[in-house]
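Progress against Task 2.4 (sequence-to-structure conversion) is shown through the following example record, which the project officer requested during the mid-term review.
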Amino acid sequence: MRKKDVYLGRDVRTLENACVECGNILNGAFGFNFERGRKGPAPSPGDVSVCAYCAAVMIWEGDDMRLRAPTVEEAERFAHDECVQLARRLIKEKPKRKAAPG
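Structure tokens generated for the chain above:
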């Protein structure tokens, strides 16, 4: 089976949100998918997000675009979503940066 290409969308700034698992502050988002040229707009309520620090899955909600933990049903659905699992795998495999001395 041929490995699929992954395409990144544009980076957008968001209101600051704390990750529901690790607590790190997130202030941006970008999308990726398997379709060339599909850039996509900023996140919308109901879209999934993956923490860039710990790979936790979260959901955008409300007019103020806050992140929340997924419901049991959402978590089950995203556990089988190819894009979500690829994002989580890439984040977990990225090299960890060492803290600056001082």
